[in-house]
Amino acid sequence: MAFLTHFPVAPIHHHSSSLFTRFFLTPKPKTLLIFATLSPSHFSSTSTIIPSSSSSSSSSSSSSSSLETFQEISLPEETPLQIAQEKLFIPPDTEISSEKSPRILRGSNIVLSKYARDAQIVSAEFVKSSVETDACPSDGSPEFALVGRSNVGKSSLLNSIVKRKKLALTSKKPGKTQCINHFRINDSWYLVDLPGYGYASAPHELKQDWNKFTKDYFLNRSTLVSVFLLIDASIPAKKIDLEYASWLGQNQVPMTIVFTKCDKRKKKKNGGKHPEENVQDFQELISKYFDSVPPWIMTSSLTNQGRDEILLHMSQLRNYWLNH
Ligand code: GDP
């Protein structure tokens, strides 16, 4: 496989912040639009690339999961997203050319790479709650941290990902909501539940403490492959979410934006918008904080939209990380 010439040749360290900052591509703008409708079950198919002037759409929809381990999921009909090539997230060590259409995860801007494999979850267990980075598990396994405003749907998403109704409740037990909670997946990697932020009735000083230790975790956890920042797509962008995203961007912490509650489609009064519009608005608002476009993905814990896609994205980041 030919490599893009602007991939760095310097050795890659396992430190998390190097993964995206080194490999975020800033492709030259091209007049291509890509319909991001590929579901994981369409691995053999290709996404559609058309000139940006065209308004035709492709259709690709499947209700089955390709991850095999669990029962079929039913995904609602989705409007294909049109994504310009320069707005795609191209994983490291991945070739993209106009001759060969990229494979894009449905409801996201994420191009699939050769590292996407072993995505299914076979086992998940709660391991420990930590109050500081140094107390976190030290076996060196890669991990993904879920964080978001209180009520964004973090516990629901975590449960949807591991398909266990009660697993994330462990982190909701008294005394654990302010901790770094580690869940071991397939005995080989971790999902990490971080304290929700912006909880209105939390005393100011307590909020400060959360900020302090989660920031320390983001900056110093060497096995952190990517933060998954959860954003509620059923409402317009909140200031605190924009601040969080900009902090991560400015500190070059690898980040994937997970838009939650994408099933909530009803237009609200007072200019409420559809999830797709909120998703677009949010990206425009944070774009100035990022050198290149971060990966994002639309989800719903109600319909399981995005579940397989999240797992595939995690698998390709994880496998790349493990190989470098
Ligand atoms: P957390 O505080 O971030 O852990 O949020 P929860 O997972 O407890 O969810 C907060 C509220 O949002 C609950 O009432 C959930 O039922 C609801 N919720 C969570 N995820 C979704 C979703 O994907 N779609 C819809 N419609 N509601 C959701």
Question: Any descriptors?
Answer:
10 strands; alpha/beta; seven-stranded mixed beta sheet; GTP-binding; G_ENGB_dom; three-stranded antiparallel beta sheet
Description:
With 324 residues, the protein is of the alpha/beta class. Helices cover 24% and strands 16% of the residues. The protein has seven helices and ten strands. The protein has helices at 16-23, 154-162, 169-172, 204-220, 239-250, 275-286, 307-323, and strands spanning 32-35, 48-51, 82-84, 124-130, 143-148, 180-185, 189-193, 224-232, 255-260, 296-298. The strands form two sheets. The protein has a seven-stranded mixed beta sheet, with helices on both faces. Strands 2-1-3 form a three-stranded antiparallel beta sheet, with no helix packed on it. Strand 8 (224-232), helix 5 (239-250) and strand 9 form a beta-alpha-beta unit. The longest helix has 17 residues, at 204-220. It is globular. The model is unreliable at 1-78 (pLDDT under 50). The protein binds guanosine-5'-diphosphate. Guanosine-5'-diphosphate is lined by residues 148, 150-156, 196, 260-261, 263-264, 300-302.
**Residue fraction in strands:** 15-25%
Bound molecules: guanosine-5'-diphosphate
Helix content: 10-25%
Tell me, briefly, the overall form: globular
Distance between the termini: 17 Å
- Total beta-strand segments: 10
Strand order of the largest sheet: 4-6-7-5-8-9-10
Major beta sheet summary: 7 strands, mixed
Quickly give the structural class.
alpha/beta
Low-confidence blocks of residues: 1-78
Q: Determine Rg (CA atoms, Å).
A: 19 Å
Task: Please count the helical segments.
Answer: 7
> What is the mean pLDDT?
76
What is the element string, with H for helices and E for strands? HEEEEEHHEEHEHEHEH
